[in-house]
């Protein structure tokens, strides 16, 4: 029976949601840990493990970083205090990090993609990646390489098993 792979946990955090598609579509050049400004029902919904990063992206407007299209469903127990599920949320970074990111995004064909949402010391953090888009042939080569590595590992496992049996 094959072991189930455990999600890679960020340092000191419990993963709420991750964007696996981002690592397939983009080359991640650098990552940043950001805080996020939330309202009460949003944090309760996130603690219940409900969020989707599928279409989310970040932009830099007037010296501030904003996370757009992050879907946090409405919290069932909150009534009139509920939030809009896809509202724009502010990300918290140091000024020098924002300035550096702005320069890197403005210069080339790079974008800011959220890679994961996680809890760290009771606060929600976003792992933000500075990403450069992959071409279709790069994606195919990555899939081919992973398949070949998997086959090599499988073959080595068979040989080792055959020697010990």
From TrEMBL:
<dbReference type="InterPro" id="IPR020081">
    <property type="entry name" value="SsrA-bd_prot_CS"/>
</dbReference>
<dbReference type="GO" id="GO:0070930">
    <property type="term" value="P:trans-translation-dependent protein tagging"/>
</dbReference>
<dbReference type="InterPro" id="IPR023620">
    <property type="entry name" value="SmpB"/>
</dbReference>
<dbReference type="GO" id="GO:0003723">
    <property type="term" value="F:RNA binding"/>
</dbReference>
<keyword id="KW-0963">Cytoplasm</keyword>
<comment type="function">
    <text>Required for rescue of stalled ribosomes mediated by trans-translation. Binds to transfer-messenger RNA (tmRNA), required for stable association of tmRNA with ribosomes. tmRNA and SmpB together mimic tRNA shape, replacing the anticodon stem-loop with SmpB. tmRNA is encoded by the ssrA gene; the 2 termini fold to resemble tRNA(Ala) and it encodes a 'tag peptide', a short internal open reading frame. During trans-translation Ala-aminoacylated tmRNA acts like a tRNA, entering the A-site of stalled ribosomes, displacing the stalled mRNA.</text>
</comment>
<comment type="similarity">
    <text>Belongs to the SmpB family.</text>
</comment>
<keyword id="KW-0694">RNA-binding</keyword>
<dbReference type="GO" id="GO:0005829">
    <property type="term" value="C:cytosol"/>
</dbReference>
<dbReference type="GO" id="GO:0070929">
    <property type="term" value="P:trans-translation"/>
</dbReference>
<dbReference type="Pfam" id="PF01668">
    <property type="entry name" value="SmpB"/>
</dbReference>
<protein>
    <recommendedName>
        <fullName>SsrA-binding protein</fullName>
    </recommendedName>
</protein>
<dbReference type="InterPro" id="IPR000037">
    <property type="entry name" value="SsrA-bd_prot"/>
</dbReference>
